[in-house]
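[Q] Does anyone have a clean structure-token version of this?
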Amino acid sequence: MKLLIVNGPNLNLLGEREPEIYGHDTLNDVNAFIASHKVANGLDLKFFQSNHEGAIIDYLQSHRKSVDGVVINPGGLTHYSIALRDAIAGCQLPTVEVHLSDIHAREKFRQISMVQDVCVQQISGQGKEGYIQAIEFLKKMA
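[A] Here you go.
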């Protein structure tokens, strides 16, 4: 099973940016945690992060025929990107939306997800474990 692990804007600053909300792990720490977790055994995981909406859309589209699913933390794009929503829908891959923090307990604008309705699941507020839960969900779907 091949999965994309995609992280959006500002997630490259994990460990530095608002650690009281997002934790002290860097994105490299989170990726290493995912890659070394037992849930990843036998999986082909491809990690990608960009601060650019178009780069994320291009990445999803370029891999749409070569992978089995997507775990995506869209970051701030979650709350306004119809283009990302359309790309997820257009790729027709089972996609799980993940957020480190609980977006439903945060500012009102963060409680809105433009991508939720085109994802098979949303996992919010579980920290880096949310990525593991997302992978487990996709494995059960396969």
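[Q] Thanks! Anything notable?
[A] The longest strand covers residues 2-7.
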